[in-house]
Amino acid sequence: MKKFLKYFALGLLAILVCFGITTYPKLDLISGFSAKSIASGHFIDNRSIEIIEQGDNDISLVNKATNAINDARKFATSSVYGIMERKAIYREGLGATLINKDFDESKPYEVPKRTNNTTNLPFPYGNNEPKDTIFSNIDYKKLNAVVANAFDKEGEKSKRTRAVLVIYKDKIIAEKYDTNFNKNSRLLGWSMTKSITGTMFGILQKQGKIDVTKSASITEWKNDDRAKITLNDLLHMNSGLEWEEKYDKICDATKMLFQAENMSRVQLEKPVAFAPNTHWNYSSGTTNLLSGILRNQFKTHQEYLDFWYTNLLDKIGMNSALIETDMTGNFVGSSYGWATARDWGKFGLLYLHKGNWNGEQLFDESWAKYVATPTNTSNGRYGAQFWLNAGGHFPNVPREMYYASGYQGQMVAIFPSRDLVIVHLGLSEKFDFNGFLSGVIGSLSEKN
Q1: In whole angstroms, what is the distance from residue 70 CA to residue 337 CA?
Q2: DSSP 1-47
Q3: N or C: where does the chain have the smaller number of CB atoms within 10 Å of the terminal CB?
Q4: How many other CB atoms sit within 10 Å of the CB of residue 265?
């Protein structure tokens, strides 16, 4: 019996050691993802905990978390197996922030000053309902069939589309939402937020306040090889800095999003792995570093917070838009941008019109060409904080398309020569964008 107990104890110890090495570190990230998702979905878009758990959090391992919401104090908590509890707080104007135990919730904080520039005009230059317009060159039956096919039929759970919006010549020609969602639903764009962050540099350059061809001018880099890195290199994900971004494991990206206090410093502290402009490597850390660089362009934190809204989001009537912040007050420019489908569409239209919004030039026309020009070594897949189809990644879709793209199938696709913007928001990495986009294109004839 003693021998049995000895081996049993050793076996149990081995199991515990294995759990500690392989699983326990993941629990912090799992509960962190869950708490942040619950807080954001509930307080930003008024979703119930059930809808969030069955939708946003229906991800392997994340669905193991037990979640709770405190409406009175505006926070959410999550834990796995009753351990590693994480907390995300909601603050009006800043969104939800995943916090650690040292975070002082009583500390005063600044919020962006919002301006509602909405005019008494129909979409897109106002928030009134768009005027009905019938185009003779559109096969509406075919278009509506393509859009309908983008959604799951009753009982299915594969396409997981939440919203589709098609804008042609500034007019909405197709719009559809899944159950529980509508034109007022604010939806997370994930990495589409990167395209917003990049746009801020285009606006600053138009204002003569920055030159993206110059050095990133980061103090910590001035005495090593990183001093050679330019803003252009960072915008093109071509800095050569070390970074790992794989969401099926613990990596630089997951540790940054679900553990870091100051997300702008995570990439900053990485060493050089390659010479600049020789090795394209997708990095959410790079975009958050860019957000930190933007913050340093202003004398005060308040000016930094305001700039994103007064010079872009509110300027073009994206009044539903919200960019969430980290614990130190930096916008999480890599991942945490929210907006309605119509407001994401306005962002696409700004680029379709090469920076001109109802007569005002927010960034130079050349900036639209800049972001859509392939990054060296990306094989035509990436520009400056935008994805491209220049290399034919979607074989049946025009090569001219460039697009903001985010985790689980978020997309704002821009087709310059066709005067077309297509928005897709959903929850599936396996969504057939080639078939969907080519189907929409196929419903439009060349004749205007």
Answers
A1: 23
A2: -HHHHHHHHHHHHHHHHHHHHHTHHHHHHHHHHHHHHHHHHHHHH--
A3: N
A4: 19
Q: Which residues pair with 164 in a beta bridge?
A: 176, 424
Residue 313 CA to chain centroid, in angstroms? 15
- Per-residue pLDDT for 430 more than 50? yes
Per-residue confidence (pLDDT) for residue 335, from 0 to 100: 98
Contact 164, 423 (CB under 8 A): yes
| Through-space distance between the first and last CA atoms of the chain, rounded to whole angstroms | 87
Position of tokens 């392989």? 22
Does the structure show a pLDDT above 70 at 327? yes
Residue 447: band (very low, low, confident or very high) from pLDDT cuts 50, 70, 90: low
Residue 112 CA: distances (Å) to CA of 144, 223, 305, 314? 39, 35, 5, 11
> pTM score, two decimals?
0.94
301 three-class SS: helix
Could you give the C-alpha distances from 340 to 44, 109, 325, 392, in angstroms and in order? 11, 26, 19, 29
For residues 132 and 122, what is the distance between their CA atoms, to the nearest angstrom?
Answer: 10
**Residues facing 338 on adjacent strands:** 188, 322
- β-pairing verdict for 161-168 and 171-177: antiparallel
Contact 261, 100 (CB under 8 A): yes
- Cβ–Cβ contacts within 10 Å for residue 409, how many? 23
Token pair listed for 310 = 């007064």
